[in-house]
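Exercise 3.2. Students should predict the tertiary structure of the chain below and write it as structure tokens, then compare their answer with the key that follows.

Predict this chain's 3D structure.
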Amino acid sequence: MNQLLQLLLMSVLVAYSIFLTFPLAFKGLSPRGVQLLTGVGLGILIYLIMDVFSGTYPLAEGNISLSLLLVIPFVLSYLGFHFYSSLRLGKTTEENYARTLSLVISLGIGLQNFTEGLAIGGSLRIGLSSVVIPLVTGLTLQNVTEGFPILSPFLRSGKVNYSYLFAMYILGGTPTLVGSMLSYFVASTPLVIVFNSLALGGILFVSLEMYKGIVRHGNVSGKNLAELGVAIGIILAFLVNLLP
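Answer key:
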């Protein structure tokens, strides 16, 4: 099979495996179930922060220029998401709040998935065929879990706009495909650092927003369920990343 076609097929598999959680949008959940699933989504995002940072920092360590590429985009991304969301989230209905939060989550995950695509395309380009299959398998499973955070804001509102949610899944998954095609022709460590840094800023902001939502909407038992969900989400993401 032509190598570029092989890369395209693998990238599509990784990018759109995120849709495997989409059917959950059609299932009605109790408030306690919403709290639990929101906690799971938050736990996955927390693990992503740890995972992305631990994979990015060694690339910049000891190099001032690369370290600045890690810090500056992170700060700009965090503040950018904050100012954008403060304009959209301050005076809005529950449904619009869910749409805005889901958009921000999708953007943050999309930035992180772009760098995953860079890893796939770059590995295939330099001939690391033995690495590509395990990499694709692991990233596919990871992308499945990333659908939970995108979905969770809609579960709380109880009013799911399916076409909008579908677009958010596209937004979160497609950067994997774009990144893999780009890195097949252009490999760049600074590019990986910048996009991972942007993703970290966005995911950190979203994680804080989700936690505030858990505190705002949950009673004592609901908060306990959400905290349990956070632990489950972290463990789930960790176990998925252990797989080849």
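Discussion points: The mean pLDDT is 81. The CA atoms of residues 121 and 180 lie 4 Å apart.
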